[in-house]
Fold this sequence. Notes:
Blueprint: H1 7-23, H2 40-50, E1 85-89, E2 92-95, E3 113-114, E4 131-135, E5 143-146, H3 147-153, E6 156-160, E7 163-164, E8 187-188, E9 191-196, H4 197-203, E10 212-217, H5 237-240, E11 246-251, E12 254-255, E13 265-267, E14 280-286, E15 301-303, E16 318-320, E17 327-332, E18 337-339, E19 345-352, E20 358-364, E21 372-373, E22 375-376, E23 386-393, E24 399-409, E25 433-439
Parallel strand pairs: 4-14, 18-25
Antiparallel strand pairs: 1-2, 2-3, 4-5, 6-9, 7-8, 9-11, 10-14, 11-12, 11-13, 15-16, 17-19, 19-23, 20-21, 20-24, 22-23, 24-25
The site of molybdenum atom has 6 residues, from loops.
Amino acid sequence: MKEKKGIHELYGELGEKAxxxxxxxxxxxxxxxxxxxxxxxxxxxxxxxxxxxxxxGDRFPAGLIPAxxxxxxxxxxxxxxxxxxxxxxxxxxxxxxxxxxxxxxxxAENLFVRNNGHPPAVDAIDPKxxxxxxxxxxxxxxxxxxxxxxxxxFENITRQILIECGGNGRSEFSPPASGNQWTVGAVGCPKWTxxxxxxxxxxxxxxxxxxxxxxxxxxxxxxxxxxxxxxSRGVPIAKALDEDSMIAWAMNDADIPWMNGHPLRLITxxxxxxxxxxxxYKLLVRDQVHDGAKMTGTSYRIxxxxxxxxxxxxxxxxxxxxxxxxxxxxxFPRSGIETPxxxxxxxxxxxxxxxxxxxxVHTSIDFGSTWQKAKLEDAPNRFAWQxxxxxxxxxxxxxxxxxxxxATDEKGVSQPMILPGWNPKGYLNNACHRxxxxxx
Length: 440
Ligand SMILES: Nc1nc2c(c(=O)[nH]1)N[C@H]1C(S)=C(S)[C@@H](COP(=O)(O)O)O[C@H]1N2
Ligand SMILES: [Mo]
């Protein structure tokens, strides 16, 4: 198996040609029927573009862009995050290529960054003097702790916990949703060390008025207006009191990277990562659902019933996203490789399911017509991803293939093959991940 060089070059050279082949000059011309199916001619032409015939071309879904030609943004580097693809630099938002998420424990340089404002300046962060204030009507004894006090007064725990942006996968929605056009890499699963949020809240006398938490971070609003928070979210009190919700000061046995919330952040596994506040200095326990920045309107909220793409949904019909859905990634090999026909081919990846376990992972080499069950490992602890692998794949003849991976959670819910329900801000796209393979 060798790495096929220059998928970017392939995209550059062939992208335009391919889009002509697929869409034609007029979207309703002969390459795409009125029902959106590619014509036989278009498939044959697409095979030429891809450098081989599309072996299971008769099973290729309507209107889908082949994985080999799907958007692959150019890398751009930020210090300490060499492999990430930067989507935006004001604020900084950067995601990982899926093949960089192959480690069991995501290294710091491959962990995505999602900032809503400007992070606090590095020299303004001193872990020795940093404090966390706990207050609000939901606690009897408001208290302010230094990080040292948190370390000494509460049991220290280490957990591998996945964080994923609620908007991961947004780029595939149509009509498009505004916001960072994440592909698949706004996810990672590092190891965090800290204390249980539960122990700290209990020490502050959490009472029966407690409904929801509200975090505040030291980052600043993009407008420069110091009275505005870039983001201030929280979780239902039951989630805050979950035994694995954390207040963390270390990641992978080192300081948390600056961009990921040094010196103190929250980790609420299974929920969208927007609930895991970075650079946190205040945590309130409110007697009502929090209404801070990015808690209302269309932010991190979805319609409470399925809607047709493009629908305008009344505010009162939007609900806050809680646990994230089942999902998986193919992390090895990287998309676009070549492999000899007749040689055993294997692939592997990660799978996760919000607050649930993943029960099964299947892969397909014929655009989802048939599926083979993969080997699946247990997670090291709750809210970590599970590794899966598939061996003994045989490509029957020379040509273009895609490998699709599909996970199923413990309740029997699987990932959709292409796109889940549309929502105004493009959250929760848990469609099957796919990679392109050329059998030669
Ligand atoms: N203070 C603060 N916390 C924050 C954010 C932020 O902009 N400021 N972004 C949130 C969002 S939307 C996500 S997806 C995660 C991203 O965490 P990461 O940058 O460590 O990957 O942090 C969350 N916590
Ligand atoms: Mo996010």
